[in-house]
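Chapter review: from sequence to fold.
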Amino acid sequence: MGRTRPMSTILIVDNDAYMRDWLREILLGAQYEVAVAPNGRVALQQLRAGPTDLVITEMLLPEMDGVETIVAVRHGFPQTKIIAITGGGILAPRGYLQLARALGVDRAMAKPFTQSEMLDCVHALLRKTSSTDPHL
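The token string follows.
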């Protein structure tokens, strides 16, 4: 009989409803608890409401952009892992992702990425923090 891993909670922050839904379905299928937010302001409200292991945030967001969101998460929830994602805007995605790295995100990914690329990234980050079994 296989071991069950503790369920990690992931918050997806993206103003694109299609991207939020796509990521949500992928992560639910991988047995994670998933919440979604359309911008950083809503994301911070959700973070205050309960523990979150990982935030996946778009860099280009309305109301409170990815930079502000990353800074707020790092300040208020330092144990929470962060993956920054973007397809770019005025700058190429690389510029936004370099900024995200400078702000201390755990990973940065340019869109488009595949389902397996995202899952590999999520699994690697959460395995490091939530594992109490040294053999994982």
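Two observations follow directly from the output. Residues 1-5, 130-136 have pLDDT under 50 and may be disordered. The radius of gyration is 14 Å.
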